[in-house]
């Protein structure tokens, strides 16, 4: 009887499952202690470098000059004048100082001075691109003067002209670029100065790089705050303009809805009359043929269906918390009461109401009353105490209803009659007149008053 030796590694996995590879060896203490932090540092440095490069390579609104949107031509020209003054004053001084105090060849000094100062004119429209040129020229100038004989006490790596021109450039950069670009410019400026300081070339006033670093940071901070404040004010004005347009649109829609709700009662009255007449016609008129009775019955059914649909429409137009108005709609016959109530409230009003107005279309009747009501409310709100004249009459050809509300200039200040108001005013008047197919004329008077004149059709059909 032979014995089979057991396998060297007994299987631990259940049948049918693939064998699992043994886990890799854990990292040693040196790798575990130095690997992840070093990776994080490299990753942070790479991301920071990428962020700085992106900020310095994406200018804001390229090509738009500083103060280019100002209304005054002199304000628009001011940046160009200042840049021209800086270039004209710094360029010759830079050449003389580089030649005499830093021992630079005359031709090289001229090229360096031009590259360090001329881009200031470009900074008016493209400050970030100008910074690239000026910064590269300043660094090149520091490299050129590194191995020359610098006079005792002369600053290095930046000359005084470089500091002045660079601060002027920071004004343009701070007034145009975003915060990330400003921080990137400031950090790169400081890094370049400290790099030259660490190079071991200590000469003259070695703290000039620190002076430029601090002053450029202060200039960028102040101009950046001014730019952000201006942007915030501009956005606020734009938002107020949009809000005002939205309020006007909402007011117009609300007024149209209110007019539609009021006209529902007028139309519903006519439809109810049609229904009653159609239902009672077979009983009032003797000897009607069957075809006529069926026709009247169909008319009554159609009128009832129209009333039902109008009630559904009114339910859609009415707001959630609005309740149905149960009082009858006012008309011209109630203008007298409206004027008397206004007089009792302290507003001097004269009323001229024609006696031969006769029956008016209900839509015109209601619109005339509302126009007078809104006209008096506007006088109370905007010209309290002003003498006002209200006139309602027919035109000579009897085809138009003329509604006139004229007020003089406001007298001594008094408390308003209405404090809540609808806020619709002339918008509601225009909509009512447009609805009836009439015409509205409004405008100020030479003496400081205001005039509202509406002409509503009495015979012409609605548009």
Automatic annotation (TrEMBL):
It comes from Streptomyces roseolilacinus. Residues 367-459 form the Histidine kinase/HSP90-like ATPase domain. Residues 255-320 form the Signal transduction histidine kinase subgroup 3 dimerisation and phosphoacceptor domain. The lineage of its organism: Bacteria, Bacillati, Actinomycetota, Actinomycetes, Kitasatosporales. InterPro entries: HATPase_C_sf (IPR036890), HATPase_dom (IPR003594), Sensor_HK_TwoCompSys (IPR050482), Sig_transdc_His_kin_sub3_dim/P (IPR011712). One of its GO terms (cellular component) is membrane. This is histidine kinase. Residues 1-38 are annotated as: Disordered. Residues 1-29 have a biased composition (Pro residues). The chain crosses the membrane at residues 77-98, 104-123, 158-175, 182-200, 206-226. It catalyses: ATP + protein L-histidine = ADP + protein N-phospho-L-histidine. PANTHER family: NITRATE/NITRITE SENSOR PROTEIN NARX-RELATED (PTHR24421), NITRATE_NITRITE SENSOR PROTEIN NARQ (PTHR24421:SF10). GO terms for molecular function: ATP binding; phosphorelay sensor kinase activity; protein dimerization activity. Keywords: ATP-binding, Kinase, Membrane, Nucleotide-binding, Phosphoprotein, Transferase, Transmembrane, Transmembrane helix, Two-component regulatory system. Its EC number is 2.7.13.3.
């Amino acid at each position: 009887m032979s014995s089979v030796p057991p396998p060297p590694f007994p299987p631990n996995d259940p049948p049918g499952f693939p064998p699992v590879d043994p886990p890799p060896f854990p990292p040693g203490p040196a790798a575990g202690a130095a690997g992840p932090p070093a990776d994080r540092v490299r990753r942070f440095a790479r991301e920071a470098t990428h962020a700085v490069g992106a900020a310095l390579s994406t200018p804001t609104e390229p090509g738009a000059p500083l103060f280019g949107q100002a209304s005054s031509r002199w304000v628009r020209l001011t940046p160009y004048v200042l840049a021209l003054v800086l270039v004209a004053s710094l360029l010759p001084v830079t050449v003389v100082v580089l030649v005499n105090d830093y021992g630079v060849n005359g031709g090289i000094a001229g090229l360096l001075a031009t590259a360090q100062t001329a881009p200031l004119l470009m900074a008016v429209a493209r400050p970030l691109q100008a910074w690239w040129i000026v910064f590269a020229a300043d660094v090149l100038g520091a490299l050129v003067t590194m191995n020359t004989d610098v006079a005792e006490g002369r600053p290095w790596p930046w000359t005084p002209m470089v500091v002045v021109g660079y601060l002027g450039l920071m004004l343009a950069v701070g007034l145009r670029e975003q915060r990330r670009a400003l921080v990137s410019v400031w950090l790169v400026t400081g890094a370049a100065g400290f790099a030259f300081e660490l190079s071991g070339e200590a000469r003259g006033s070695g703290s000039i790089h620190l002076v430029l670093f601090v002053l450029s940071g202060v200039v960028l901070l102040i101009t950046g705050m001014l730019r952000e404040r201006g942007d915030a004010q501009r956005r606020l004005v734009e938002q107020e303009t949009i809000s005002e347009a939205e309020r006007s649109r909402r007011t117009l829609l609300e007024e149209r809805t209110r007019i539609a709700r009021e006209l529902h009662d007028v139309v519903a009255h006519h439809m109810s009359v049609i229904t009653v007449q159609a239902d009672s016609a077979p009983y009032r008129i003797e000897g009607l043929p069957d075809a006529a009775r069926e026709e009247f019955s169909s008319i009554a059914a159609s009128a009832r269906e129209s009333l039902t649909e109008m009630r559904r429409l009114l339910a859609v137009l009415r707001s959630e918390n609005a309740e149905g108005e149960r009082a009858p709609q006012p008309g011209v016959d109630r203008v007298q009461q409206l004027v008397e109530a206004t007089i009792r409230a302290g507003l001097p009003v004269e009323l001229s109401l024609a006696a031969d107005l006769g029956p008016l279309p209900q839509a015109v009747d209601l619109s005339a009353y509302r126009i007078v009501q809104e006209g008096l409310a506007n006088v109370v709100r905007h010209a309290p105490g002003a003498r006002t004249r209200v006139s309602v009459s027919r035109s000579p050809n009897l085809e138009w209803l003329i509604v006139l509300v004229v007020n003089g200039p406001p007298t001594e200040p008094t408390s308003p009659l209405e404090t809540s108001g609808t806020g619709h005013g002339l918008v509601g008047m225009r909509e009512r007149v447009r609805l009836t197919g009439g015409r509205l004329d409004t405008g100020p008077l030479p003496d400081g008053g205001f005039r509202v004149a509406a002409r509503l059709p009495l015979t012409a059909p609605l548009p």
